[in-house]
């Protein structure tokens, strides 16, 4: 297990303060200046799971209200909205500095039987055909200011391989279809709930970028004022995140300073594991 993987697993191991009150670490995720959105979602889901027995999350819907401050912990307050015969519902509020930074509703389902169908996995080359995130970043290291190089090369817990990566600093306009493979080797010993938490964390990776591709933009061009506004996940099948998964993403619409993006997550053998939808802020950076 790498140090970065250990840090992520520690982030997901939230502390119980009271019956329905929990505390999570703020620092250590994908981004240093504000808490990574997937981290807050995963910790909020972890808090909800601590109040549920014998049921798995089938969907969650979250709104990002304020940027998270990585210098302090996050408090998660769980409301036990309903415990029904087949479904359990929880509401979670994430709090920092006495203010809400995220609201989330999550629903948990007693496993049931029914009809089955799914869309097939897209026909793209496997992960072995694409460079790792570390290899890609080494390629651009000479164009990164010295003061940012350590953060640029910092080890991350999720292994990522983009199918059609654009130039980090001068991206060309491209189709909104966006694919990446991802996994985390240390998930090999993780239980079912932790697998859900890891996938929830990773589901915020690359999604908003889909709406930037048709405009020749990304996070490194310096033109964007962007952030996730809301995020929804539907879990369909068991997750084994130690194995490669394909994240197939697209952006059907961008406008009015916002971008709508959706994604499907498949296991490498073609099983649709989860579906994701997100709207994000995507506007020109304002001069201050």
Which terms would index this structure?
288 residues, Thiol Ester Dehydrase, Chain A, alpha+beta, 12-stranded antiparallel β-sheet, globular, single chain
Low-confidence stretches: none
Average pLDDT taken over every residue: 94
Described by strand count, sense and barrel closure, the largest sheet is: 12 strands, antiparallel
Helix residue percentage: 10-25%
Quaternary assembly? single chain
- Class from helix and strand fractions: alpha+beta
Overall shape: it is globular
Descriptive notes:
With 288 residues, this protein is α+β, with helices and mostly antiparallel strands. It has 2 domains: 111 residues, Roll (Thiol Ester Dehydrase, Chain A); 163 residues, Thiol Ester Dehydrase, Chain A (Roll). Helix content is 18%, strand content 36%. It has 6 helices and 12 strands. A 12-stranded antiparallel beta sheet has the order 1-2-4-5-6-3-9-12-11-10-8-7. β5 and β6 form a beta hairpin. α2 packs antiparallel against α5. The longest helix is centred in the N-terminal third of the chain and has 13 residues. It starts with a helix and ends with a strand.
Brief summary:
The protein has 288 residues and is an alpha+beta fold.
Topology of this structure?
Layout: H1 3-12, E1 15-18, E2 21-24, H2 37-49, E3 56-64, E4 74-83, E5 87-96, E6 99-109, H3 133-139, H4 146-152, E7 159-162, E8 178-183, H5 192-202, H6 209-212, E9 224-235, E10 245-255, E11 258-267, E12 272-284
Antiparallel strand pairs: 1-2, 2-4, 3-6, 3-9, 4-5, 5-6, 7-8, 8-10, 9-12, 10-11, 11-12
């Amino acid at each position: 297990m790498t140090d970065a993987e250990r840090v992520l697993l520690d982030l997901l191991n939230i502390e119980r303060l009271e019956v329905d009150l929990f505390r999570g670490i703020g620092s250590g995720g994908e981004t240093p200046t504000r808490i990574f959105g997937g981290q807050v979602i995963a910790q909020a889901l972890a808090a909800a799971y601590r109040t549920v027995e014998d049921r798995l999350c089938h969907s969650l819907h979250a709104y990002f209200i304020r940027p998270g401050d990585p210098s302090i912990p996050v408090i998660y307050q769980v409301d036990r909205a309903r415990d029904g015969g087949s479904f359990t519902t929880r509401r979670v509020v994430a709090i920092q500095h006495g203010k809400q930074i995220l609201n989330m509703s999550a629903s948990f389902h007693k496993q049931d039987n029914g009809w089955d169908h799914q869309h097939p996995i897209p026909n793209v080359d496997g992960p072995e055909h694409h460079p790792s995130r570390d290899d890609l970043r080494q390629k651009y290291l000479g164009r990164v200011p010295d003061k940012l190089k350590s953060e640029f090369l910092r080890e991350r817990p999720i292994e990522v391989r983009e199918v059609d990566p654009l130039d980090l600093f001068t991206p060309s306009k491209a189709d909104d279809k966006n694919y990446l493979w991802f996994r985390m080797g240390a998930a090999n010993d993780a239980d079912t709930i932790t697998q859900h938490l890891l996938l929830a964390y990773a589901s915020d990776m690359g999604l908003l970028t889909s709406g930037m591709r048709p405009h020749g933009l990304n996070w490194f061009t310096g033109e964007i004022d962007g952030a996730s506004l809301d995020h929804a996940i539907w879990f369909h099948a068991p997750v084994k995140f130690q194995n490669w998964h394909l994240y197939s993403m697209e952006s059907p619409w961008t406008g009015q300073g916002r971008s709508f993006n959706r994604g499907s997550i498949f296991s490498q053998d073609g099983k649709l594991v989860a579906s994701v939808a997100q709207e994000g802020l995507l506007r020109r950076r304002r001069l201050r």
